[in-house]
Amino acid sequence: MDARLNLFVNPVATRIVKHFVAANEAIGDSGLPRATQHLVTLRASQINGCGFCTDMHTKDALHEGETATRLHLVAAWREATVFTDAERAALELAEQGTRIADAAGGVTDEAWADAAKHYDEDQLAALAALIAVINAFNRLNVFVQQPAGSYRPGQFA
């Protein structure tokens, strides 16, 4: 399977993706725990059906020491006992922020308040931005039908 558009060669796509990557770098430097970042990006990618990002974020998380058990349970995080309360709050924000069109008003005040119990303002800013950026990446990759399965950790470093 080939992508409809090569995001790594097309000059316009490359310029656009470069800005997404820059936003991710700022998020990475924010103090938001890496484990939380991995869980959130994986969950949003699952919801959006982005095979490329699901592959990439699963492999990157494993490479950085995340357990297979936790990664396998991200899709069923509400029933799983392997996540902290902070991670659960972040996953709820990720789901509501990803499914924003499904609920009038978008993310609920309750979900935001729960996350605010666990993350400071800078981390909340990073978390909201992370959810927005991963959704943008997901949509772009799904739109061009970016194939999944061949990603190697650190491939884009």
Mean pLDDT: 95
Count of individual helical segments = 7
CATH top level is Mainly Alpha
Which overall shape is indicated by the principal axes computed on the Cα atoms? globular
Broad structural category:
mainly alpha
Pfam family, one: CMD
Domain Carboxymuconolactone decarboxylase-like: 19-95
Protein name: Carboxymuconolactone decarboxylase family protein
Which terms would index this structure?
single chain, about 160 residues, mainly alpha, AhpD-like, 7 helices, globular
Can you walk me through this structure?
This protein is mainly alpha-helical and 157 residues long. It has one domain (11-144): AhpD-like (Up-down Bundle). The chain contains 7 helices and no strands. α1 runs antiparallel to α7 (121-144), α2 runs parallel beside α5 and α5 packs antiparallel against α6 (109-116). The longest helix has 24 residues, at 121-144. It starts with 10 loop residues before the first helix and ends in a 13-residue tail after the last helix. The relative contact order is 0.20.
List the helices and strands and how they pair.
Elements: H1 11-28, H2 34-48, H3 51-63, H4 68-73, H5 85-98, H6 109-116, H7 121-144
